[in-house]
Each structure stands twice: as C-alpha cells, then as structure tokens.
Amino acid sequence: MPGALTLGSAGARARGNAAAVARGNAPPVSERIILDLCAGSGSWSEPYKRAGYDVRRVTLPEYDVRMYMPPERGVWGIVAAPPCTEFSLARNAEPKRPRDFVGGLEVVSACLRIIVTTSPRWWALENPIGMLAHWLGSPADAFEPFEFGDPWTKATALWGSFARAERGPFRQGEGERRRALERCSARRDSARLCACVLQREPVESAKWLEAPAAALLAT
C-alpha cells in the first residue's frame, strides 16, 4: 500500500539521514539518541554512552519493549537483542518443552516496529544463529566472538543496516594475553564486538580488550 512503513523504507530513509550527515547537517553527539532495545545489562550500548550519546535502554522491569513508545524524532541508531530462548538451537536439547514462537516473535516484532517508525541512521538486531532466520531471512552479517578477541565461540547473527566490522587478528604479548583472557572469561559479554560492528564515530584509542568498541563508532 502507498506510504506503508517497511524495513525497506526505513532503510531508504536511513540513507537519506546519512546524506544529511555528509552535508554537515548532523546533530551534535549529545543529541543523537541510541535506543538499546531488550538492553539487559546495557553492555551493547555502553560504548555510545561513554562517547556522549543520549543512550536510552529499554528493558524489563522498567520498560516492556512491546509497550514502549519511542521518541518521535532524533533516534540516531538502534541496537536490539530480543531474547533468543525460543529460537536458539540449544533448545533442541529440550525436546519435551515446546517452543513458544508466538511469544518470542511478539518481542522481535516490537523491536522491528520501533525501527520502522523511527527510521534511525543505522540499526542492528542480534540473535544467536538459529531459527529466527525462518522469519527474518538471511542476516546481514554473522560472527564468532573469537573473531574479535574473545576466547570462546558463539555463532551470532546480525540483521539490519550497519557498517560491517573488520575482524582481527588480535595479537598481544603473553602476559597481556593471559590477563585479557582472564578479564574476558570473567565478563563474558560481547560489548566490544557489538560496538565494533556498529561503530559510527571514533571514540578513544583502545587497548586489545576495547578495540572493537573503538572500531564500532567510526562512520
């Protein structure tokens, strides 16, 4: 139908926003809103917060993404990490427990509604590689944490419109490597990687553990 909002039209409007940036019409960083949907600990959006963006984390119990009404304007970027419980291949180990695809897709649909209605400059939706592709199609990118310096594997898919991150290699001295692995094991999050994937404006130079975060914010 004419004028209908779709992910395709959101992408076209995002490209228009990028053109405005190229013309020097971008708002200051402090006025660029980053929505972190299903934020959990907020680790994905933390590099943006440190860089001075207006980060707004939408997560339970304070906010239910299915009921959330986003700002009418000013949304610069969106990261979304809907729960993977119903789509993860790990659920194959629990055959007696049926998957609640309807419940899982309610949250995914809410994230996509917010993306379509706000038309951010860029957006990304994350989920482990699994069954969500049956509804969203092939992801724009897929990665393993070890490609960004983390000492483990977890095949992860990203849907959206974003700058693809450069993969390693990550090299460091043995002492630094050991300390980095210990910190990684303790934290077990992908903030560095996700930051690298979506980074649009440079922050500060970073050490090995923070390298993807520094890469993420480059336009």
How many strand units? 6
- Rg value: 18 Å
Biggest sheet statistics: 6 strands, mixed
Low-pLDDT parts are 1-5, 188-219
Given the helix and strand composition, which structural class is it? alpha/beta
Shape call: globular
Give the percentage of residues in beta strands: 5-15%
CATH architecture: 3-Layer(aba) Sandwich
In the CATH scheme, the class would be Alpha Beta
Number of spatially distinct domains? 1
Record the strand order, biggest sheet: 2-1-3-4-6-5
Here the CATH topology equals: Rossmann fold
Distance between the termini: 34 Å
Order of helices and strands: HEHEEHEHEEHHH
- Based on the structure, what is the oligomeric state of the protein chains? single chain
* Structure annotation, total helices: 7
Task: Name the helicity range.
Answer: 25-40%
Average of pLDDT: 76
Question: Topology of this structure?
Answer:
Blueprint lengths: L6 H16 L10 E5 L8 H5 L3 E5 L16 E6 L20 H18 L3 E7 L4 H4 L4 E3 L12 E6 L12 H14 L3 H8 L12 H6 L3
Parallel strand pairs: 1-2, 1-3, 3-4
Antiparallel strand pairs: 4-6, 5-6
Written description of the protein model:
The chain starts with 6 loop residues before the first helix and ends with a helix. The protein has one domain (7-216): 3-Layer(aba) Sandwich (Rossmann fold), CATH 3.40.50. The relative contact order is 0.14. By secondary structure, it is of the alpha/beta class. Residues 1-5 and 188-219 have low confidence and may be disordered. Helices cover 32% and strands 15% of the residues.
